[in-house]
Every structure is written in C-alpha cells, then in structure tokens.
Records
---
Amino acid sequence: MIKGKPCKVLSISVSKTGKHGHAKCNFLAVDIFTGKKLEDMVPSTHGTTVPVVKKTEWEIIDIGDEDELTLMDESGDQKTDVNLPTIPEGMDKKIREAWNEGENQVMVTVQAAVGLEQVVAFKTL
C-alpha cells in the first residue's frame, strides 16, 4: 500500500545508512486499479502494509445501458455491482464487442482489494 492505494511493487532500492543511522527504502510501484506509478520512501526499520488482493472469474450474463455488468460464477451466484472497466482505455468496448449482445460466452476476471472491485481481464470462450 502506497499513499492508501493497493499497488504492485516494481522495484525496491535501499540507500546506505546516513548520519542519523537509518537506511531508507525507496519503493517504485504501480496502482493495481489505475495503472499509475507511485513512489514512497520509508526507513528500512519500519514495516509496510500489504493489501489482500482477490481475483475471481465471472461469466457475463448481461451488460446494461449504463455499462453495469450482471455476472455469474461457477456456482450460479450472481453479482451486479461491477461496471465495465474504464482503465485501460478501450477495454470496455472490446468486452462489449466480444460479448456481442449475448451471442458469445465471455469470462471476466474481477480483482478486489481494500473495498474496491474492478474488471482487469476478459476472455471469450
């Protein structure tokens, strides 16, 4: 977690101990929902928080006029509180085209962390 956002760490660099005796860790990371790069520097003796990220597969049952998705998992449970993704740009149109008004079976991967959920991938079966 960097600046309250769940991130995937790209690199960690550690500086030498300074005159105050603490080495610093510089984290370069990317937000898992927006793709924005974030940077944070913390003393090496401090801990950091790690988000619990969960990915689940859902089948698209319907796509509403306001880009809301109706999804169903393998056990038949339905989910209606996820919209088509706005990031990366154009993914929403690709999912709509792949689904083709229900003619094709499309599976989406929903990523959840810190109370947020977003479609991060899709595939046509």
Note: The beta strands are 7-14, 24-31, 37-43, 54-63, 68-72, 78-83, 106-113, 116-124.
---
Amino acid sequence: RIINDSPRNRPPVLVQGGDLRNWEIYEDTPVGSTVYTLVGQDPEGSQIFYTISGDYFSADINTGVVTLKKPLDREKVPKIDVVITIQDEPIREIPENLIPFRRSVKVLD
C-alpha cells in the first residue's frame, strides 16, 4: 500500500452567486458605489486574494468587494468584458495558484 502524504495546493474556486456570472449593472449606477462582492473558496482554507481587470471596476484584494470606478454609458459600451483573478496562498514549498475567470457584464439603461 502506497501512502502519499506530500502536501498539495489545490486551486481556489469562485462560489456561485459570487462569481459575476450573468451579472448586469445599470448605467446610472453612481461612481464609487459598491456593486458586487466576489466570493471564493480555497480547498485548504487559505486566504484568497481578488483582482478584476479593466477601467470600470476595482476589487478589494482582500474582501472581493467590487466598486464602480468610471461612469457607464450603455449606448457607447453595452457590455464590459473583464477577467477576475483569484489567488490562494502557497503551502510549504508549493507555490500559490492564480486562477483567471473571464466574464461579460451587461450594461442596462
């Protein structure tokens, strides 16, 4: 019988309802508003760090809280494509995982 007790670092995942899937935002949302909270889980229970790409949103690296940072105009930009990344912590000699997720955000009138 072989026992493998070497450490593993499985990748984190975004949780349904905290993954920005099928999410929409109204164009009159005020800049600076909290608009979403990303939620991830790590199989080993380590802390997760969040980022979001592009000009329209920022994500708090520790909490996943997403803020609108630029005015929206549905007539000019009806859809915003972003890449969310979540990262866990390294475990012993095993490096952290950095996992990207592509999402499209629909802008509503």
Note: The chain is about 0% helix and 40% strand.
---
Amino acid sequence: MCNGKTAPTALTNNAQSTDTISTNTTKKLLEVTNDELRSHNAPSDAWCAVHGKVLSITDFAARHPGGDVILLASGRDATVLFETYHPRGVSDKLVEKLQSIVYNAPQQ
C-alpha cells in the first residue's frame, strides 16, 4: 500500500510530544515535533507529513487537482492517504516546492 515504505517512527500512534520529524535538504535540517505538525491543521495554515517530509499544503489546496480535499491531511502523517490517491506518484519537484515553504517558515 505504501510501496514498501513505512511511516516515520516520529509519527506513530504512540508518539510523544518530544518526537520529531527530521527533514534533510542541502540547505538545512529542520526538525518538526509532532505537536507542531498537529498545530498546523487549519485551512489557513495546513502542513502534513508524507514519507517523513513535512509539506505546506495551505496555498496548494486551491490548485490541487482533487480539490481542497487535500486539507483533510492537515496536521498529520498523510503517507497512506497520499499513496492511496497517488498510486503513480507525484513530481519530486512539486514535493520539494511544498517542502521548501516549511523550511522557510518562521520558527516559533
């Protein structure tokens, strides 16, 4: 169902608030706690995690080919949901673009 990839350990059902999702790029490493990911769960501020990558889907929801249903993934690990609706995958460039918005987000 997930092409042999498992959800990041940091996002298991038993995750504690100290668990983090590490996102690595050539620019910098950003760690997002599960609590922080869950706090970005509104249509005006929506993040989700897919295969351990934290993506900002706030602005993309208006352009998403499937409509704003993508906002159902807000604030959570959406790997299984993503794999279910995108069996052929999605462009790496799009994922990088959505991920870069999170990298540049102001730290709280």
Note: The beta strands are 20-24, 29-33, 41-42, 45-50, 53-56.
